[in-house]
Every structure is written in structure tokens, then in C-alpha cells.
Design goal:
The structure is a homodimer of 466-residue chains. Chain A is mostly helical and 466 residues long. Chain A has helices at 3-34, 37-45, 49-56, 61-67, 73-82, 85-93, 97-104, 109-116, 121-130, 133-143, 150-153, 167-177, 202-207, 214-217, 231-240, 261-278, 292-319, 321-326, 329-358, 367-396, 399-429, 434-460, 462-465; strands at residues 160-162, 186-190, 196-201, 245-249, 255-260. In chain A, strand 2 (186-190) and strand 3 (196-201) form a beta hairpin.
Chain lengths: 466, 466
Amino acid sequence: MSEENSSVQMDKETFDSEVRNQMRLRQLHTIIEKQDSKGLSELYDSMEPIDFALLLENLDDEELSQLTPIMDDDELAGTMEEAEDKERIRIAHALDNHRLLTAFEYMQKDDIVDMLSDFPIGRRKDVINLMKADDRKIITNLLRYPEESAGGIMTTAYIALRGDYTAEYGLEKIRAIGPKTEDIETIYVIDNTGSLVGYVDLRQILASPKSTRLSDLMDDRVISVLPETDQEDVARLVSKYDLNSIPVVSPNKHILGVVTVDDVLDVIVDEYNEDILEMAGVSKEESLDTSLGESVRLRLPWLMVNLATAFLASFTVKLFESTIEQVVALSAIMTIISGMGGNAGTQTLSILVRQLAQKDLTFRECWKPFCKELLLGLIDGASTGLVTGVIVSLMYGNAWLGVIAFIAMIGNMLVSSVFGFLVPLILEKCHADPAVSSSIFVTTATDVLGFFIFLGLAKLFLPLLM
Amino acid sequence: MSEENSSVQMDKETFDSEVRNQMRLRQLHTIIEKQDSKGLSELYDSMEPIDFALLLENLDDEELSQLTPIMDDDELAGTMEEAEDKERIRIAHALDNHRLLTAFEYMQKDDIVDMLSDFPIGRRKDVINLMKADDRKIITNLLRYPEESAGGIMTTAYIALRGDYTAEYGLEKIRAIGPKTEDIETIYVIDNTGSLVGYVDLRQILASPKSTRLSDLMDDRVISVLPETDQEDVARLVSKYDLNSIPVVSPNKHILGVVTVDDVLDVIVDEYNEDILEMAGVSKEESLDTSLGESVRLRLPWLMVNLATAFLASFTVKLFESTIEQVVALSAIMTIISGMGGNAGTQTLSILVRQLAQKDLTFRECWKPFCKELLLGLIDGASTGLVTGVIVSLMYGNAWLGVIAFIAMIGNMLVSSVFGFLVPLILEKCHADPAVSSSIFVTTATDVLGFFIFLGLAKLFLPLLM
């Protein structure tokens, strides 16, 4: 199938799914009007829970509060598990505490914790106090971990069996516990003190003679994390080792929970969106649907910070006003020098940001790449500088103007190498996110120093330029 | 544990793993020297295959060709499955075709295809011709699909059972096929013509009475893709519906293969790196270790393109040389206007790029957000323009200069809204990647038009400024 065809089909699919969504929404409105709980179950069963959750985003609060009473508890739980954070809270808002607790019975503990941590403190406390004692204990424990740590995203529904179990007995246990867990492929093996000692793949248990001990089947090279481990590090491990789940353990190797690969997917997609947006000074909370006022609130501060740095660059130019007054061509050329430094700096910093997202770098490891980056600045600066110099010389009929542009370009490219390399590294060491704030420091440097080098040289050799 | 402590621990871990790697590398060198195949097996078993593959990156070609003869076939296969593309080819280069085929016996078909597609055509043909007839058929079929499509990343090792099988018979089949498949949790159900009709979760098979038919257990809402589907769309579906694997089917619903969640993780990480880097004009192939010459080759073309656009902006300034000559302050202020437009435009385009990465947008859907973006440009332009205008008026003692800066700022922010919104959208419709090329169009627009609006206004009202 050609590129052309495949895209046409895609567009048709997009169109079809829009039409279907419109139909479903009309159906849902009728259901709410007639309080038709049978029709609702039919609609719910005909869709994936996530699509149903997305459909509810089109309802207003009033409609939502008329819908929840005719939903079954498991439908309600399924919808809340799949809904986005904001939508979840809106649904929870339409429920009293009693109904909410009933729905919680059908939900995974990590999803409940996720929801509760977005609740206003008062309601969170009320709900937790109404829980059964053992649930309350698990939930309060989970709530203690930071939201973006292994403990914050782990689930407590996993399978851990003792190593002295036989394959047959183990399988019996798996049959019983399995339906409540998210990952059935990886079975963790613990010793009689409850410490994690290895894992077995369900395939091996299925394929082994009934009397084999799990401890004879298990692989003892099990990769685990502490509950405090940052979710990005967890994601890196799961993706590097192609795991279905990774156990979260206490310092004495007791399993506290597991993080499953689908949660890791969410983490990676979130971090991706965060980095793409925050590199450009946009909050990860913003999307096309964000209200005007909210967008202003989220974007204007970043623009104001940029304005301050723009003035810094502008002051640098102002310092050389008398020089520009005498050779006005400088004003047209200086923007080339500063702009090119910004572009080269952004290239260098992107490489660093990507590298730092994958693993920590020590200053020692950086020595060689840093020298390479400097050389690269020299070569790229000389190449673009040469082109610039020649064009400028011809355009303004003054060879010295070209020479100065050439030297300034090399100088500013070296600036871009130094700042593009060091700024992300230093931010990372200071525990700041290099993706978010690097670019402003780097482009400020290339603007200010780019103007300074070029105009400074021009001032120094002014007689040659006139 | 405080932030401080956790980071110290991390740094210590990084340090430990570096030391461990150095030790292992020394061990490996001794093993090669002594041709100690027992020692090699011990080393291999003490590590994860991916870590062993990473370790081999430190060997030169000579050492590698001395190592492979003492490796077991399954060690060799495990290493090649985990190694990066480049390293894989280097290992394959150290093997003759016969040894390579023996190692292939232990590898998943999708990994073999991945490797073969990176081979020089001649060797690829030779290797394929040496394969057994049925392997050759599967491999040549898989090789036909584009590398970044569902067909290109799918594996042919999956479990599909007929709906009229009982749970007991199904489980027997799973025991037999399971060890060769990547996903054992999702069992696909086919009818007697071989068409996909649903799926069953292994948990349900384990928990059901032995005589239950799979067709009674299955869910018939199965999400599938065509082999031509882009890998990004596959990743989106797997992540949205939290799937362990997604079947790739022919138009008549025969299963051709499945894409598993670990392959999807790789796709997402790759696309992430690609977007982050290519937005900044860096190739996804570049990393800190890339050689100097290679880096120049990869980065210089982008800088040259940028240089062309920088000259475009410079020509615009040159048009107004006589105006600048009379009011030299303009040269310091104009960089503020153009720079701020660039920043605001980058914000808008990032939102669009992110949105387009998640789903296609029709022009019709964009009408409202586009108007919002224009209003936002007006508000942000008025706010930053006011600050700029006041400071400029005070600094240069001319209120009119401030008024012109204020109006020009609003104008250029509107430019940034229009281009930041439309450029990614149009590129997407033209089947270009908006992440890669948007920024250059947008910043060219904000530079050229920013200078033009500001200097044009200044020229128009020149008498007021002097």
C-alpha cells in the first residue's frame, strides 16, 4: 500500500471514529434523560472502558451527577481507573463517600491512591477513615511515597510464592491469586523469612514436572528498586531489561509492591510530553483545550523571563551605539552572529539533555566529549563564518567587515559549545531538570556574548570598517 | 530519605557500577587471551544479556573475532538479540554465515529480520538462501514490510488457538508453545477458517472448568492493526488500551504476527529521542560518543539552512539601514521584538507538535483553538509590549519609541500565533514530521516579520522619533 493510500485510510478512520463518537454521545444523553440503566450497560459493554471514560469528558457536571446513580459499581470502577486525573476527580465529586468506597472495592490499590492524592485533604481523610482497617493500612502506607517515585506508582497486587512450593502447588496458588494481579507472567520467589530471592517465569512452571520446587526453577538475578527510586529510573530499568514488572523492595528485601510495564509506559509518555513542552517554556498541564485565561497564566511568566534576558542582550547592543552609528551595516550583521550561536547551542544542549535523560554523567566522563564539542564549535564556526564573511564582504564592499564576521562567528560558536555543554550538566548536578531551563541560559549567553564579541571587534577595528 | 541522601546514593551506585564494569572488562580481556570458554560462560551467566552486550562495545573488531568462537550458540544469540543495531552488525561481521545461521536458531524472527535489514544486500541474500525453506519464507515475508510499520516490528511467535478447544486442551497447547512466545498472557482465538475472532486472558483459562470452550471465555472486542500501520500508531493503541500485545492482521483477519509491549516501549523511547533531538536540528543517530567528523556531517547542514534564514532576516534589517542610521536606538530594540516572537512561536508550536503526536487533528477541529491562540498572542503581546514600551520610553527619553515597540510586539506575537499554529498542522497534512522542521519556519517568520513590522513602523513615524 502506498503512503498516499494509507494516509487516506487513516483520515477516513479518523472521520469514522468522530461520527461514531457523536452517535455514542447522543445515545448517552438519551440514556441520562430516560435514566435507562440497561441501555447504559449495553453502551458500556460495547466500548473499551477508556473510550467510555473519554466519552464522559463531554458531559457537564449536572449530567455526570445524573449518570453515576444508574451505573453499576464495576462500570463506575472501570471508568474511574481509566479516566484522566481531572476527569476522575470530577466523577468522584458526583459521588458520596459511601458509593465511592463501594467502587474502590473493584479498583487496584495504586489507582485508588492516585485518586486520593488528588483529593482535597478533608475528603481524603474522610474516605480513608471509612475504609476497612486492612485497606486503610495499605492505602495510608502507599500515600506516604512521593507521587513520582517507585512507591508512588507501584501496585500491591502481585504474586510472590515461597521457593519450597512445588510447581503444582504454585500453579494452584496462581490460579487463585492470578485474577487479581496485573502481571501473571513473572512470579516472584521469596524465602521463609519473606525476602525476595528470585523470580520464575510462568512458562517454566507450566512446562515443569509437578513436583519441581520453585527454588530449582527460579532465576536469582532479580532486578529490584527501592520505593524512593525516581519513576524515571524505574522506567529506564524496565525498558532496558524488557521486564513485565519490577519489584519494589524494602532495604531488607521484603516486597512492598511491583511496578508493571503499563505504568512504565504512562511514565515514559508523561515525561516525554513534559520534556518536549517544558523545553519550549510550556507547562505539561497545557493542551489545545486549555482555557484562554489558564494559557495566559501558564505561558506569560516564561515570556517575561525571556523579556528580561532580551533586555540584557539589548543593553549589550546599546553599549556599542556610537559604533553602530558610524557603521550602520553592523546592525544587520550582528543578528546573524547571535542567531547562529543560539542554533548551535541548542543542538549541543539537546544532545546533553537526551544523554542525561538516559543516564547520569560524571564530570570525569565528560572531558573527552567536551573537547570534541569545542572542536566542533571551531569547525562549524569556521564553516558558517566563512560563508558569512564572504557574503558580507561582497555585499558591503568591505573585506574587513567580512573578516570580523568570520572571527565573531567562530567566537560565538565556541561560546555555544561551552554553554550548551556545561549548562545542562550543571543544572543536573544542582538537581534541576535540564530539559526545562537549559535553553534560556544558553541562548542568553549566545545572544549577549555574540553581540559583545562582534560589536566589540568592530569597535576595536573601527577605522578599517569606515 | 531526603533528596540529598537519595542522590548521594545514586552517585555511589553510578560509581560502583563503573568500577564493576571496569573489572568485568579486565576479566573479559583475560578470557579472550586464554581462550577460556568456561570462564566466559561464568561471566555471561553472572550478568543480564543486555549488560553483556553493552560490555562488548568496549572490544575492538580484532578482540571480537577472537571472542565469538569461544561463545556458545545461545550466548551468542542472546547477546545479538540485546545489542544495539551497530554492535549487532559488528558481531555478525565477526561470524561466518554458517555460525550466524546456527545462532539464528535461538533468536526471535523479528530480531533476525531487524539484523538482516541492516546487512549489506549481498550478505543478506547469501544468508537467506542458506536458510531452511520454511524459515526463508517467513523471513522474506517479514522483510517486505517497512522497518517502522507494524509488520516491520511484529514477531511471529504468538499463541492463537481455535475457539472450539476446551480450556484443558488449550492449556496443554499453551504449555507446549508458551516457551517460544513473548507474550503468554494474551491468547488469541481464531475460528475454523483461521480468522481472528477474539482473545482470552490466560488467567481465565487457568481459573475455568476444564471443559469450558475458549469461545465461551473470549472477549470478542479485540483491537488489531494492519501490517502497514505506522509504528507510532501501534504504540499509541497499546499504551491507550494497556495491552500486553496487539495482533497484526491481514485484511481478511488472519493473524500475521503480534507486536509486544516491550517493542512498543522501544518505539516510544526512539520516537522521544528523535523528537527531542530533531526539534533542535540534531540527528537521532548522534550521541556524546559520535566522532567529530560524523558530528560535523550531521550538524553542519542544519546550521547552513539556518544561516540562509538568518541572512533573510538580515536583508530585512538592511532594507531599513537609512532609518537605523537616523535613530540608532532602533538597532538595540529590534532584537527584543524578534526574539520574543520566536519564544512565543516556539511555545505554540510545541503544544501543536505534542497534540499531533497523540492524534490527528482535522482543520475543522482547529478553528476554536486557533482563535484562542490569536487572542493569547494579543494578550501576551500587549503585556510584554507594555513592559517593553515603558522601559524603552524611559531609557531613550522618547515616548513614541515606546509606543512603536508596544505595537510591534503585539504584531509579532500575532505572527507567532499564526505561524506557530499553522506550520506544524500544514507540515503534518503534507506528511512531513512537524517535530523536525516546524521551528525553522516559525522562527524565520518571527524574525523577518518582527524586524519588518518594527522597523517599518519606525520608518513611517520617523519624524516623531528624532
